[in-house]
Design brief:
With 192 residues, the protein is α/β, with parallel strands linked by helices. The chain has helices spanning 14-25, 32-41, 45-54, 62-74, 91-105, 119-133, 141-164, 177-191; strands spanning 2-7, 28-31, 81-85, 111-116, 168-172. It is built from eight helices and five strands; from the N terminus they run E-H-E-H-H-H-E-H-E-H-H-E-H. Helix 2 (32-41) packs across helix 3 (45-54). The chain is globular. The N and C termini lie close together (8 Å). The model has no long low-confidence stretch (mean pLDDT 98). Bound molecules: adenosine-5'-diphosphate. The site of adenosine-5'-diphosphate has 18 residues, from helix 2 and helix 3.
Length: 192
């Protein structure tokens, strides 16, 4: 199995690159952000809870996020593995993911691919996306800056855990989308 953690701050291009990677290697993408938005759209209890955090740019609590992710991992799939997009975002989630992958898939995380983009580019990309995406959390610079702040205070340390396991690879996330994809493919080929 290939199990990829796609990592990076908001606006670094995880969703875009996940799309290319799933096609190239026949993987299943699990995006916790997409799952929350699906729940918000359908006005579920989980959606209502998540919305109260997402609209402020804050992380949703670990337990509900992890439960939602676990349900998704348990669904049968005939792919070669998974791309985790937007999860883990805390140390607690990183430890949870390790257990879930072991217990449910009898496997492990193969690699953490980290897209590196500087903050001012992130803010510009997200504001631009907000013009068309309809995402409330993309519509306002203050919320965007809170999200980037959350990334540095809670998420960046996740990288240290994968570095310790020699599973952490940084890729420059600025440039042509296809060129960035090629760099990611090359890293996946190494662990195949
Ligand atoms: P982006 O990477 O652009 O911030 P996402 O779609 O990944 O967008 O996430 C949107 C929001 O959903 C986050 O700001 C956060 O509130 C919530 N969220 C997504 N994934 C997680 C997670 N693993 N843990 C906690 N909150 C999450």
């Amino acid at each position: 199995m290939i199990n990829i953690v796609l990592f990076g701050p908001p606006g670094s291009g995880k969703g875009t690159q996940a799309q290319n990677l799933i096609e190239k290697f026949n993987l299943k993408q699990i995006s916790t952000g997409d799952l929350f938005r699906y729940n918000i759209k359908n006005e579920t209890e989980l959606g209502k809870l998540a919305k109260s955090y997402i609209d402020k740019g804050e992380l949703v609590p670990d337990q509900v996020t992890t439960d939602m992710l676990t349900d998704e991992v348990k669904k049968p799939t005939d792919t070669n593995g998974f791309i985790f997009d937007g999860y883990p975002r805390t140390v607690n989630q990183t430890e949870a993911l390790e257990e879930i992958v072991k217990k449910e898939l009898n496997s492990e995380i193969s690699v953490c691919l980290s897209l590196v983009v500087e903050d001012e580019i992130l803010v510009n990309r997200l504001l631009k996306r907000g013009e068309t995406s309809g995402r409330t959390d993309d519509s306002n610079e203050e919320i965007i800056r809170t999200r980037i702040q959350e990334y540095y205070s809670k998420t960046a340390e996740v990288a240290e855990l994968y570095k310790k396991q020699n599973k952490y690879v940084e890729i420059k996330g600025v440039g042509e989308i296809d060129e960035i994809s090629e760099m990611l493919y090359a890293e996946v080929e190494k662990i195949k």
